[in-house]
Specification:
The complex is a heterodimer of chains A (131) and B (224).
Chain A lengths: L1 H10 L14 E10 L2 E15 L6 E8 L2 E8 L5 E8 L24 H17 L1
Antiparallel strand pairs in A: 1-2, 1-5, 2-3, 3-4
Chain B lengths: L3 E12 L5 E8 L4 E6 L1 H4 L3 E6 L9 H10 L6 E6 L2 H4 L18 E7 L4 E3 L1 H5 L38 E3 L3 E13 L4 E5 L9 E6 L1 H14 L1
Classes of the chains: A alpha+beta (131), B alpha+beta (224).
Amino acid sequence: MRRSAIEYVEAKNLRQDVAQFRTGDSVRVHWKVKEGDKERVQAFEGIVIRKTKGSNRATFTVRKVSFGIGVERIFPLHSPRYEKIDVLTHGHVRRKRLFYLRALRGKAARVETREEAEMRKTAQARASSHS
Amino acid sequence: MKGLIGKKIGMTQVFTEEGNLVPVTVVDVNTCLVVGKRTPEKDQYSAVTLGYGEIREKNLTKPELGFFKKNNAALRRHLKEFRVSPEEAAEFTVGEAVKADMFSKGQLVDVTGITKGRGFSGVMRRWNFKGSQTKTHGTHEYQRHPGAIGQRKTPGRVYPGKKMPGHYGVDQVTTQNLSVVDVDVEKGLLLIKGAIPGHNDGIIYVRPSIKVALRAQHKAARGA
């Protein structure tokens, strides 16, 4: 009874057009910004370093490096405030939360895409079979 | 002052129309109905008695059962009188369900409930004392203590009402001016912004804000 009432309230809040992405993916969030009575769309582009679960309370954190300074933004996954989420690349990562990126700079802070990982693996397999 | 009896279901978050994420408490008011009335002629005051929560006949005592039989109302587990003016009381009929639409979106309400029991608590939990500010410099086993409780020979006693450890919780508490975020008449749910007293599944009373009513009264008196 208790769960069902809360689930009902939360279900009414869910967005139907939520983009499919995982941690390590690069995304562009088209966030609607209100300025006075005007509304415009501002894009925030970066790597998803965290996704939290929880029905309509789910959030995701996007990290980017802007002018040498790391910037992280937490977005509610079901917020009506964003127009859309573009998934740019799929990352190949071994863990669910990429907090280790905070300590890294420049080239080290890149995340390998799934295609790159595929290529690297086939190249490795070929090299080992020849020897 | 009208009101409703409800049950605290639990907390979650919802998005408002502006897209803001607000914390809400879900309150169930499904089985709320009028089970009786108090009239000035018979009882020297005017009120409506509301009932909440279904109960089987065998679980009621005979005097309780007699009350429901006399008023010809469905059996209810929790009863509460709400003082209303005789004019307001005329809007209610015994046996009729009271719906969540008594409250509207954005309205301010007062919520009364019984707080969670915390047992015998120390001063830090019970009265928000700061505790010891240092763990070293000779302090020994004194981190959560209250410190001194009085002066010296004058007055030579502890003042009444001195904040000390003791039983905490299980008090009736009213949280005032909480806004109603959403009303779902069909499902019998109220969404109230923020936290309300008590544990989940606890019985609570929701009334229109008394401060808003007093302010309106004051304004009317000044305008007249």
